[in-house]
Amino acid sequence: MMSDAVPAFDAVSQGLIHITIPVGMLQCNCTIIGDPITREALVVDPGDEVTRILELLGRHRLTVKAIVSTHAHIDHVGGLSKLRQYTGAPILMHRDDLPLYQGMEVQAAFLGVATPEITDVDQLLKEGDALRWGSFEASVMHTPGHTPGSVCLYLPKGSGEIVIPAPRLFAGDTLFAGSIGRTDLWGGSMDQITDSIHGKLMQLPDDTIVHPGHGPLTTIGQERNTNPFLIHT
Ligand SMILES: [Zn+2]
Ligand SMILES: [Zn+2]
Asked: What is the Cα–Cα distance from 67 to 177, expressed in whole angstroms?
């Protein structure tokens, strides 16, 4: 049973509650980032297995402030409707991925799976937006290429009440450990993803911990030095 799997990373340490669990058939990393004092959390990419996500939120006594979709691929958005319904938290997504989200039956047919329930998007994200919850503030980076409306969230070390040991980047499917997102699906563009990665992500500090949409964590420094897709582009 998928729901018995141990979370890939489940830590309450150094001023931050951070839980990442791979969900669904395509094992999309769903991430919960919570403030241990105010118990407010952000949920990124609840692609599936909402019962399990709710159970983790309950276990850590977290209230969801917002649900962020890094992009509208089916494996990242399948649980949005149900999680919004159960938590009352708003759904945030970039405008340029609304057509993909609203035309979900196209992706479902492509994969040969049932079309997940679609819900309203409450807030449209754009480059430079600040997302605040608890004592955290992350900024939105519009990083098109994998999809037109792909976004990454950058959480700096912070200042004041809570300082985390290293900045963090929630990268969706734009950057992976040793790879980059595919660009052969709807609205994908190799030129755009290359610009997004070099122009924005590679401007971040080397010690930034990257949380990709699939697979293991990495850092900006590690990818800058070893990612074969970045060295030759
Ligand atoms: Zn994707
Ligand atoms: Zn994905």
From this structure: 24
Average predicted confidence (pLDDT) for the chain: 91
What is the 173 CA–ligand 2 centroid distance (Å)?
Answer: 6
User: What is the CATH architecture assignment of 9-231?
Assistant: 4-Layer Sandwich (3.60)
Distance (Å) from CA 71 to ligand 1 centroid: 7
Residue whose token pair is 């919570």: 34
* pTM for this entry: 0.92
Give me ligand 2 centre to Cα 79, in Å.
Answer: 13
pLDDT in tens, 44-95: 999 999 999 999 999 999 999 999 999 999 999 999 999 999 999 999 999 9
Q: Positive or negative, the Cα torsion across 171, 175, 177, 182? A: positive
